[in-house]
Design brief:
By secondary structure, the chain is α+β, with helices and mostly antiparallel strands. 35% of the residues lie in helices and 25% in strands. The two termini are 22 Å apart. The structure holds adenosine-5'-diphosphate and the ligand N[C@@H](CCOP(=O)(O)O)C(=O)O.
Length: 308
């Protein structure tokens, strides 16, 4: 088999919200979902690590179903493939594993059906599928993204000029996004919404000017989701109370949780990890970096074998 008969799709993880940027801000992280794809006579999804064993191995796999939905949108059909899937993104931990799977499905359909979608088009489809643009946007564009999804009208700004030192504090237990959204209120008062919007606006300004002390302060003042989710993630309060003393600018619940993302002062990663480990020894501590590339594909499939 020649090089051109296979593709590799690589999609980064994400941390959504950054506190008050609920459902609109996302940061791409250097953990990856990777698909090695070759054409085949039947669908076969082969998990390359133990965590992925639980998922279907045929065309009912979430990634393949997503790809089929995208193909249908363009009146195309998928040609069956063998896909080797590997990932170091912890599942159901608020690091965007499901968003990365959606993006991988879109990239897969784009390749198999030769759709030639732009990043913006992939982003539009992914946001509609996920229901919010934060985590899929980060996984597609890389860097920091700020999106606004009002029904089918979806806009985004992508910022690559940020340099952050990060630590993800990952609990052993899963928390499904669906359950974590279930504790959010139906409505907020007008005055609360105005205050919550102000906090979010200032977070963005502080991130863009590099005023990380202020960004950290705004992260803690989020009024949209963290106060409601704290009951599900009691370690968030512990980390909020102590991480700044150990050398963090601020901390946020990553996506819907339970992971907490710490924004670290230069050179303070070990101090923050060691300090928090004494208080919360049962967590995994991952020093993490921003991914600036977003999802990308290498190689190509033999177009002569593809369905038109
Ligand atoms: N590689 C994958 N293949 C198939 N399904 C996946 C994959 N990654 C994630 N999922 C689905 O997404 C779910 C987790 O999504 P979610 O609750 O939103 O948490 P997360 O914060 O990790 O995105 C998993 O339980 C699984 O159903
Ligand atoms: N804005 C969403 C983000 C969910 O991200 P995930 O990585 O936890 O799937 C939310 O906070 O519900």
């Amino acid at each position: 088999m020649s090089e051109s008969d296979m593709i590799q799709i690589r999609v980064p993880a994400s941390s959504a919200n950054l506190g008050p940027g609920f459902d609109s801000i996302g940061l791409a992280l250097d953990l990856y979902l990777t698909l090695d794809v070759i054409l085949s006579d039947k669908w076969e999804v082969i998990p390359m690590n133990r965590e992925l064993e639980e998922f279907p191995k045929d065309d009912t796999n979430f990634i393949v179903k997503t790809a089929a939905e995208v193909a249908k949108r363009y009146n195309k059909e998928l040609t069956p493939c063998q896909i080797k899937v590997s990932s170091n993104i912890p599942l159901a931990r608020g690091l965007g594993s499901s968003a990365s799977a959606i993006v991988a499905g879109i990239e897969l359909a784009d390749c198999i059906c030769d759709l030639k979608l732009s990043k913006k088009e992939k982003f539009h489809i992914a946001s509609l599928m996920e229901g919010h643009p934060d985590n899929v946007g980060a996984s597609i564009f890389g860097g920091l993204i700020i999106g606004c999804q009002l029904d089918e009208d979806i806009d985004v700004e992508v910022i690559h000029s940020i340099d952050l030192e990060l630590v993800a504090v990952v609990p052993k237990e899963e928390l499904l996004t669906k359950s974590s959204r279930g504790v959010l209120p139906e409505a907020m008062s007008y005055s609360e919404s105005v205050a919550a919007g102000a906090v979010s606006n200032l977070l963005v300004a502080a991130l863009l000017t590099g005023n990380m002390e202020l960004a950290g302060k705004m992260m803690k003042k989020d009024k949209y989701h963290q106060p409601y989710r704290k009951g599900l993630v009691p370690h968030l309060q512990v980390i909020e109370d102590h991480a700044l003393d150990f050398g963090a600018y601020g901390v946020t619940l990553s996506g819907a949780g339970p992971t907490v993302l710490c924004f670290i002062k230069k050179g303070q990663t070990s101090s923050v990890i060691n300090g928090l480990k004494n208080l919360l020894p049962n967590m995994e501590y991952l020093p993490i970096h921003v991914d600036y590339k977003g999802s990308y594909v290498t190689g190509s499939l033999d177009t002569a074998l593809l369905k038109k």
